[in-house]
Amino acid sequence: MSLNFNVDPYYDDFDPSKNYHRILFKPGYAVQARELTQAQTILQDQVTKFADHIFKQNTPVSGGQITSNLNCHYIKLQPTYNNTSVDITKFDGLLVKNATGTVTARVIAYAAATGTDPATLVVSYKSGNQFQDGDIIYDSASNLAAQAILTNATGLSSVASIAQGVFYILGNFVQISASTTILEKYNNTPSKRVGLTITETIYDYINDASLLDPAVGASNYQAPGADRYLLALNLDTRPLGFGDDQNFIELVRVDTGNIFKMVDGSVYATIDEYFAKRDYETNGDYVVNEFKLTPSTNTINSSTYDLKSGKGLAYVHGYRIENQSDLLLTNDR
After folding, report:
1. Which of 159, 151, 149 has its CA nearest to residue 92?
2. What DSSP designation does 55 have?
3. Spatial separation of the C-alpha atoms in residues 236 and 242, rounded to whole Å
4. 319 - beta bridge partners?
């Protein structure tokens, strides 16, 4: 963890170089708050040292698969309907229809109004027909309604989603819930890096009233107690060019709608090196799925040519090497 807990009021002065493995409480001696906190840190240090042998930092442990949808559609909404402001957040996940019921779509994401962009729904159609300019959008179950703007209301959009899973982050096993983020609101050829933003937060009873003592009838009922440390993951995007990547874990790279990099499983640490060594000693280097090579003329520079390497899978020195999409290389003739 990157937060410093060796400050007021926690005073967690755990020092791994001292090799303390237990805190031994004794009758007749006061229990210090820092001792209770440090007892957790000792256990966490043991878990982290073991887990570092198995997993690389920032890798999925279970679940957490990333998928992209480059064939969804946006609907730009008017700010009010029947003189009532439209709360776009209430449409998230709903199955919406038009006035005649001939169009059906599932809302998979939304974007609040920003600048000149109106509030926007991103939907996946369940019907062959699609919403048109000025259509009324209903949800019969909740009686919610909104209206599309009158011109250029619809078009192609793009999103990425992550399944519920567990990631190994900062020495902790952190759960993430299923969620979706918009890659590009108004086109389906995004160029983005998709990943997880790490957020560390300390909650006290002011932030979360459930932390007050629940012992009804006791003198300490509703008294404040210990705070809580929360490590959270949120699906997020970054530009292709590297920038502010602090606390960001890249999982997928999309360039003009093509996926060039994807973390699609756990990345193992020392144990992976052990099995890679054995595999290489036994089998050497080998190709599982052939990389198809296609040369072509470079129309920009006649002194070079292009070589396209198709999707493929190989093991090099025991490590799995995969080309997840076509790769174009330019070489001198």
Report:
1. 159
2. B
3. 14
4. 316
DSSP 8-state code for residue 280? H
**How would DSSP label each residue in 107-167?**
EEEEE--BTTBPPEEEEEESSSS---TT-EEEETTTTEEEEB-SSS-EEEEEEEEE-SEEE
Which candidate, 87, 206, 75, places its Cα nearest to that of 144? Answer: 87
- Give the pLDDT confidence of 302-326 residue by residue, as tens digits: 889 988 888 888 999 988 888 877 7
Instruction: Look up residue 289 and give its two tokens.
Output: 């799925």
CA 173, CA 194: separation in Å to the nearest integer?
Answer: 20
Contacts of residue 42, defined as CB under 8 A and 6 or more positions apart, other chains included, come to 14, 20, 21, 22, 23
Could you tell me the strand order of the sheet in which 228-238 lies? 228-238, 192-203, 248-255, 258-262
34-85, pLDDT tens digit by residue? 999 999 999 999 999 999 999 999 999 999 999 999 999 999 999 999 999 9
Q: CA dist 265 to 59, 97, 105, 167, Å?
A: 8, 37, 31, 10
What is the rounded distance in angstroms from the CA atom of residue 120 to the CA atom of residue 113? 7
* Helix, strand, or coil (residue 94): coil
